[in-house]
Amino acid sequence: MRTDPDQAPLSTDRTPDWPERATRWAQITLAEDDPLHFDAGFWLDLMRDSRSNATCISAGGYVAYYPTQIEYHYRSRFLGDTDPFGALVDGARELGMSVMARVDPHAIHADAAAAHSEWLARDLDGNAIEHWAHPDIWLTCAFTGYHREFITEVAREIVREYDVDAIFANRWEGYSGISYSDGARKSFRDETGLDLPVGEHQENWHEYVGWRRRQLSRLVSIWDEAVRDLRPHTRFIPNLGALAARDLDRALVEKHYPIFFIDKQGRSGIEAPWAAGRNGKRNRGVFPDRPVRLITSVGPEHHQYRWKDSVAPAEETKTWIVDGFAQGALPWFTKFNASVPDHRWVPPVVEAFTLHAKVEPVLKDLRITAEVALLDPTRAGQLRTPDGIGHEDGFYQALVEARVPFEFVSDQELTPARLAPYKVIVLANAEQLGDDQLAQLEAYVRTGGSLVAAYQTSLYDERGRQRDDFGLGDVLGVKLEDPARQVKNNYIALTGEHRLNQGFEGTTRIIGGTHILGVAATDDAQVPFRFIPDFPDLPMEEVYPREAPDRPAVVCREHAGGGRTVYFPFNLGAIFWEALQTDHGQLVANAVSWALGKVPEVTVEGAGLVDLAVHRGTDEVAVALVNLTNPMAMRGPIRETLPLPPQTVSVAVPTDQVRARLLVAEVDVEATVENGRAVVTLPTAGLLEIVHLDWRS
């Protein structure tokens, strides 16, 4: 560390466009004892072997890994006269890498807590909140001088003394719940005239959500301006969770967020492997042009047992990284603790990063497109009814199984310009929509767009207040007669000929929902399925229907402008995610296909579970197939990826002069062009293949 305050900055030739070039990130999250034994040579060799071009290195905050001069900035007790942070920064710069310094402001040690009790997060009774995982350290409140002033000085010290491009803040929001510190109480009262809510969704919650968003956004602005004042190209970039930038104001994000880093490090439980790519889609749904990087842990993600210093199976790690970058969330790996007792994570990281380096030259100039979008209702404060879990997951799984390329569009971004690229918008259970959002969706349908909606979509306004009827009732062709109720042994009967009935040959009924609403359909609507009235599920002798099908279970409409709508008055997505009944997935696929009303621009046919992404340029298309076919597809971790059998990729093209290449296999293949479509047969694929079609002159 340089100690002469008059010494010039280490470099003056860095440029502000570095985030665009930093596409493969290696993170080293140091443990306090790492200064005793960490091997800088190992890490620098790994950065080179994995073709990483950027790194994030632990620097300070909760523990400083450099000789800080700031009072109460806790130095590792093993630091001595070493500077592990500085050694890694210098080595990475010699490799030509971008460098970020990691800080963590969410907790402080006992000496700082005793000297500055005003920095601490507090519960409703005013008690300081001790860390849940370690004794005698204390959680901080983001709305106090600790974040605004102390962390600002830490960031400035690092930027002043080291050749870094950014400060990366982990757990930067401090305490995740409502903090009742004096600073938070006063700030909220001064801005709103109100008292903090006593809990989530309690009185003043709506105002709290807006206030918190504004305060956190201002904090980002303070930090970013503080480091840019020292070096104009340097940025302060807070870490984000899987729900992207929902807690930040758009204007400040545009000014202060050159890049997003998404902290969804892996899957656990019954999460599907496509959850990696969903992070990329969700971020584009809010900020479609903002670069995104997905953080991947080399260890398993188990939130209860927290095996943070362990190693996940190789195929699990590779799949998470590859599905992420196929959907636009470029790779970042993190290793907790710089000691490496288990080296099994190294080859899969190198393999996945090398794979990205191989396809990057083509994909970097293309953008991901789709004809279908799933509405992302993740605005902070979003209503969550007790039966509201799994709706998005179920529709997402069904669309992946149906091989429908699709994107997200945020409920914060419902504008004509953002909706225009899509032919179909899917509302899995967008229950909380404001009048302005309803107006945009209604206009979208009038101008030829189509909607597929389910369950309680539009039954609540933006504040979570229940409406008397569906806000989109006139568009969907339905009127609410009875609120949602829980049922068992429910079935829906096929009634009449319709595209949504296809694929159910050999039966007159299929399983319905577990939460259903009573609706009436308008006269101009079609009803291809109706609910069979309730009948017992026990004793077995009583399990038979007593009455004929009556109320609508699926309602379809064709609109004058060319758009189509489909509405399911039951929890279709949630029950598919829970029970994975094939008929429910077929119903989703049929609805989207009928709503699209034409042959899709891109189709991929063949056996296996494949996550698709369509990358487009002016005169080229790259269709990415991520092979999720494995024995553990719905229950991690993945042990093995089964090679795909032959796949047929068909793409609408404007010319019959088309070249085709498989980017991973690195071979040219024949494209047969007929009736305006180029068809390529992919003989097999491992984890990833990308079919690149090019008709540039």
From TrEMBL:
Signal sequence residues:
none
Q: Name one GO molecular function term.
A: beta-galactosidase activity
Please provide the Gene Ontology terms (biological process) for this protein. carbohydrate metabolic process
What Pfam families does the database record attribute to this sequence? GHL6 (PF14871), Glyco_hydro_42M (PF08532)
The Beta-galactosidase trimerisation domain is annotated at 394-494
Note the InterPro entries from the entry. Answer: Beta_galactosidase_Trimer, Class_I_gatase-like, Divisome_Glycosyl_Hydrolase, GH, GHL6
Q: In its UniProt entry, what is this protein called? A: Beta-galactosidase trimerisation domain-containing protein
